Amino acid sequence: MRKIVRAVALVSIFATLIVLSVASQAQVNHAAHRPEGMWVNPNTVPPFALVYDEEGREIISPDHPRRIIGYFVSWRHGKDGQPAFLVPDIPWSKITHINYAFAHIENNRISVGPDSPDNPSIGMEWPDVPGCEMDPEFPYKGHFNLLNKYKKLYPHVKTLISVGGWAETGGYFDLEGNRVANGGFYEMTKTIEGINTFADSCVEFLRKYGFDGIDIDYEYPTSMSKAGNPEDFWISDQLRGTLWRQYELLMKTLREKLDEASVQDNKYYLLTVAAPSSGYLLRGMEAHQVSKYLDYVNIMSYDMHGTWNKFVGHNAPLFDTGQDTELKHWNAYSAFDNIGYLNTDWAYHYFRGSMPPGRINIGVPFYTRGWQNVSGGTHGLWGEAPLPPGMPHPPGTGDHVGSTIPPGYGAQGIDNIWHDVDKEGKEIFAGVNPMWHAKNLEHGILGSYLPIYGIDPADGEANQLIGTYQRYYDAVAVAPWLWNETKKVFLSIEDEQSIAEKAQYVIDRGIGGIMCWEFAGDYAYYPERGEYFIGDTLITTMYEKFKNASPYNAKLANKPMPTQSIDIVPSIGGFAIGDNNFPITPKLRFTNNTSQTIPGGTKFEFTMATSTSSRINDQSGAGLTVVSSDHTGNNIGGLKGDFHYLTFTLPSWKSIAPGDYYELTINYYLPASMPSNFQVTIDGQKYAFKCEYPDGGADGTTPTPTPTPTPTPGTSPTPTPTPTPTPTPGTSPTPTPTPTPTPTPGSGYPAWDPNTVYVRGDRVTHKGKVWEAQWWTVGEEPGTTGEWGVWREVQGGGPTPTPTPTPTPTPTPTPTPTPTPVISPTPSPTPTPTPSPTPTPTPGSGVQPWQAGVSYKVGDQVTYQGIVYQCRQAHTALVGWEPPNVPALWLPL
């Protein structure tokens, strides 16, 4: 397993180039190397050119055009008798970044515990392990010494210290293994004093231990109730109304202090986060406005399904398939225009809305999740496995969080060797295993390591190798699984096929790279042992796919942006808290920081992520319009593009004086990150926003035409919001696209249509008046529902205060998983069957039309609606898998 490194030369050509580059930094315009979309620090320009090229791409090494990031965990040190994974075991030549897990927060300072021989980070030694000899250059020992020792041999690899994680976000473990519930991030971020103390300690920590950056794993600063580690609910729930605001302050402070230290040390320090992929969690994280402070984001695009509920599905699907039973249970497909919102592709597009592809890394798990006693589904997939009646619900699930959905019956024993334990020391059933153990199960191998994990066949069937673990593959979701028909056990896995396809997805979309949790779960086969064990097969698969790939896409926009810029600053806020945040109705503000007045009639344009549907409008009478969308319809096989393109025009009577702002309330339905690619048109000249594109030629001032005098509109008295009845639980409307009715002249709002579904905040005109829906409705005529009814008259039709959102039935439950990074649901192999026309062959092509029920192999060609497609994955076609719907299966020619 261990690969002993024998370095022939300590300084490579690449290292020499780095030295030469550093020597010439005085002549470099560092601001020109700033990655697109990153915050412009008004106080200092950090030495971007030390790690970024002229295009704002991270400089790594010639054979690493994309990132391969792995988490190295402190607790696999081997001193406890379990298999060790030490610094020499890292596949150094094939990776680009190491995230060390974890540091914690103690007395508002970053810490890895006391300097002790038992501390694996800074005190432990392995004198009998080849390659683990301590480097005397460093005053500390442990993993930190070895990381810096090996960085000398592999100077292209950067190391980051990860702070928090599932178990140490709200506390930490002492050297005896006892958890100290000190509040962690939750307590530290209460005050600016705590934040400053923490940020200063991070700078000191990086300097002391030689790390290249900080990775914040705060799980989670969301306003959603009962989110994160159940052991932290005592503090997280009481603070959830302020968590995001304080998190923004934390990240801004960290960025400022790291920038200052970078200038002082002539060493650029990275700031990254591990971000959730769960639409449920992201709904409580506003528009993830902190992305601008980050060098990149690592998406924890796993734990889409798990035993926190009974729904059986993939751990880390790449795409939605339209068949996710958890989403179906909550009517999520019908409520959200058939967008399945919990898969890697959806999460990527959420962040793509505000970041270039190259500043995003998708995540993959090197561990399984699984259930036992599964019923229904296809070989277990999309079946159910509720915990048997009478068994206690694990913390954070079922009756502990007020959920009507029972927790899942997790796989146990031989199907759960990487399990956690409860407070009584009993196994928590969750089907968690390293991938090397899953490979042994797949091949019917009884691993020699099982006694180390307490697996004794004499203890009963749960610890015995019974039945066959058959591998199946979901070609649309890009997700394999194991199914044991005898035991009714389902284990979601990753292997070379799924990792290779995910790597190709990263290449094709210009994404920055892949992050994995964690190195020690990867596998290799050892013939001399006759079994699989810890290796680097999956990391090698990524490396081989990436090494000859093109550079990642460093551009924020997909279309040319104006060459001149203007100092208008967009911001977003006013989000409702928790479940009240549906529909999502924040206020988008534009602040004029120029010395000139922005005149009425100015056209504003911006983009939003396709993670939400194209149903986007405003509640302010601004006439916000979706001009075009890169994606419409369902997302089976992936979202087809990145952005919705929106525009509105400043009313002719409304100008924005220097220092003043214009604000509108926007309305959308699925989480989307901060809008981006802002531009305005003044007097026929287009300008980008300086905060996104600081190198434009406007310098914060623009020739501003004199506004044409226009009549002042009539007074619009502000009505008093009426009490809003609470909607009946369980109503989850299915929006039906309808023709847009003709608006009442001058109102900017469409006429009421009895066949259209309206939700809270929608406005219509009817009989010469403007009305606003207070909750979901269809067919109820405005003016007939009474004072306390669904429709409230908006006097004058102008902007009105938005009432405090009332709790709305949401398609996402509130369970929180047992110690894992993320909660979420997942996709499936069979989309909802819908009749589709039988296509006619393209005349003269000789290619047969696509047909449901036909088995296709790689390279087969078909026609569909006049277009020729080539098969990318062998499969048997089903109704709903028409070529345009599943780009994972068909490539248009």
From TrEMBL:
- Map out region (Disordered) in residue numbers: 693-754, 780-851
Q: Which Pfam families match?
A: CBM_5_12, ChiC, Glyco_hydro_18
From the UniProt record, give one GO term of the biological process aspect. chitin catabolic process
Q: Record keywords: Hydrolase included?
A: yes
Q: Where does the signal peptide begin and end?
A: 1-26
Q: Which residue ranges does the record assign to the GH18 domain?
A: 66-549
User: Compositional bias of type Pro residues: which residue ranges?
Assistant: 704-744, 800-842
Q: Does the keyword Transport apply?
A: no
Looking up Gene3D superfamilies in the UniProt record yields: 3.10.50.10, Carbohydrate-binding module superfamily 5/12, Glycosidases
Mention one GO molecular function.
Answer: chitin binding
> Record's InterPro entries?
CBM5/12, CBM_sf_5/12, Chi_C, Chitinase_II/V-like_cat, Chitinase_insertion_sf, GH, Glyco_hydro18_cat, Glyco_hydro_18_chit_AS
This chain's protein is named: Chitinase C-terminal domain-containing protein
